[in-house]
Design a protein that fits this description.
The protein is α/β, with parallel strands linked by helices and about 325 residues long. Helices cover about 35% and strands about 20% of the residues. Helix 3 links the parallel strand 5 and strand 6.
Length: about 325
């Protein structure tokens, strides 16, 4: 296991009511995950626990850590982890995402939490933000140790990557993306290295694939689209910047989309029932339809909570809009 630096390097202030420790554990593929374990101070009985991750391309020092620490203040033991291949977690090459492995990461986090002496292993849930939400739901379909699932600003990365925003890809565009990814594999194999690229592949006005080396630009262009500006304001400014975050400073490997073309998320979502699902989305979020569609697909018990006057990124760190009271009640009632 790696030697872990316990220095506080989060994008949010440290709570005086919570004990923090950086920890590591392996998933079933043998990859070492690094996580932040948060525990309420002066609690000696066995407690309910929550595993957290996300957003897609973020690290545990950002949004998931804020959620974890806040819920620990409310009496839960929480574990915010970096998915495999990202942040401080292991895996080579770096900055790869996998629908399968990143789903397994949630179950590995459950393994770790259930081994802690002060955790009631029959009272463990998961919470995911943005693009890790699909993995959290998928993990719950095959891991009944997960007793409750909550998501915030959900993104279905398989759907987004393989079909485009609001399923906008034509069949021809989907084939172009597949051809591009297939040829990129030749280039990577010949160079012995892995090129970077967009995980959600865009097209220009002439129908050609646009390539790039960063998720977000160094500087925000004038008249930038609202969604781009919102992401930039979080990841590229002191508000949420972290040097290990893919979204803050780099991009995924160009062939990352392959996994998400191959594996749809939460295909067996009905298997979560009778365990409950809570889906939280901003009223003005461009991603709202993902939560709404999952709500339609899921079996009872389920709840969709729309936050008034909130966009997608508001639910990353805006404590005035993140419904922590609701999240706390949901997990207290169901764990």
């Amino acid at each position: 296991m790696p030697l872990l630096n316990q220095k506080w390097d989060k994008t949010f202030a440290k709570s005086e009511n919570v004990e923090h420790q950086k920890v590591s554990f392996k998933n079933r593929y043998g990859l070492v995950l690094v996580a932040d374990l948060y525990q309420p101070k002066n609690r000696h009985e066995k407690l309910a626990a929550i595993a957290l991750s996300g957003p897609f391309g973020a690290v545990k020092e950002q949004s998931s850590g804020l959620y974890a620490q806040t819920l620990a203040e409310r009496g839960f033991i929480t574990l915010a982890f970096d998915p495999s291949f990202t942040g401080e977690s292991g895996g080579e090459p770096r900055n790869v995402a996998s629908a399968d492995i990143n789903t397994e990461d949630f179950s590995a986090a459950i393994d770790f939490l259930g081994m802690q002496p002060n955790v009631d292993r029959n009272r463990i849930g998961v919470l995911a933000i943005c693009g890790l939400s699909g993995m959290a739901l998928t993990a719950a379909t095959s891991d009944s140790r997960i007793k409750a699932v909550a998501t915030a600003s959900m993104y279905d990365m398989s759907r987004s990557i393989s079909r485009g925003y609001q399923d906008s890809y034509t069949v021809e565009q989907r084939q172009k993306v597949i051809d591009y990814l297939s040829q990129q594999r030749w280039e990577d194999a010949e160079k012995g290295d892995y090129a970077l690229g967009y995980h959600e592949v865009p097209f220009d006005e002439n129908g050609n694939i646009i390539k790039g080396q960063r998720v977000l630009p160094e500087t925000l262009p004038e008249n930038a689209p609202t969604v781009l500006a919102a992401f930039y304001d979080y990841y590229r400014t002191p508000r949420g910047f972290h040097p290990r975050s893919i979204n803050s400073s780099t991009a995924w490997t160009a062939t990352t989309p392959i996994s998400f073309f191959n594996f749809p998320m939460h295909a067996n979502i009905d298997m979560i029932s009778p365990r409950p699902i809570l889906l939280i989305a901003g009223e003005n979020a461009h991603s709202r339809y993902y939560s709404e569609d999952v709500y339609k697909q899921a079996s009872e018990p389920k709840e969709l909570l729309i936050i008034p006057n909130a966009d997608h990124v508001d639910l990353y760190d805006n404590i005035k809009k993140i419904p922590f009271d609701k999240l706390s009640d949901f997990f207290q009632q169901n764990l």
